[in-house]
Amino acid sequence: MEELHLTKKDFRIEWYSGTGAGGQHRNKHQNCCRIIHTASGLKAQGTESRERATNQRVAFDRLAKLILTHHYATDPVKERIPTTKVIRNYHGVRNEVHDKASGYKDLYTNVVGKSSLSRMIEERHKAMSMETKIEIT
Questions:
Q1: Tens digits of per-residue pLDDT, 63-82?
Q2: Of 103, 104, 101, 105, whose CA–CA distance to 79 is shortest?
Q3: Domain map (residue ranges) of the chain
Q4: CATH code for 2-77?
Q5: Model pTM greater than 0.70?
Q6: Per-residue pLDDT tens for 25-65?
Q7: What is the rounded CA–CA span in Å between residue 69 and residue 78?
Q8: What is the tally of helices (H) and strands (E) in the chain?
Q9: How many CA atoms lie within 13 A of 135 on its CB side?
Q10: Which of 45, 103, 113, 122 is most buried, judged by most C-beta within 10 A?
């Protein structure tokens, strides 16, 4: 597993007042969070909640996904799943679905017939989390 080590010094956190519904509370309090990764210039925002901690957590989650995408896109050797290749095969005749990224196979009737992609998505997340881990200290 490859690890990507980042420190708090790698980020700039900005707090601002939100816009839209919420009235006086929304206009008076600076609960919305914007986090910027200074090295790459990538940024993410969290504005959904009235709580600062929740908005900061949401912004960090979004930024982590952006950093991973940017990390693999800038170095083609590190890229795990090329976008030009097929990453999932649906085969109704053989009654199977094969997810190339995670290696997970299931019956076509279970995935498509019952509209249940949750198991396949879980396996994809497991495969992605085993490849790279972001640690912020």
A1: 988 888 887 766 555 545 44
A2: 101
A3: 2-77, 88-133
A4: 3.30.160.20
A5: no
A6: 777 889 999 999 998 899 999 998 888 999 999 999 899 88
A7: 11
A8: 4, 8
A9: 7
A10: 45
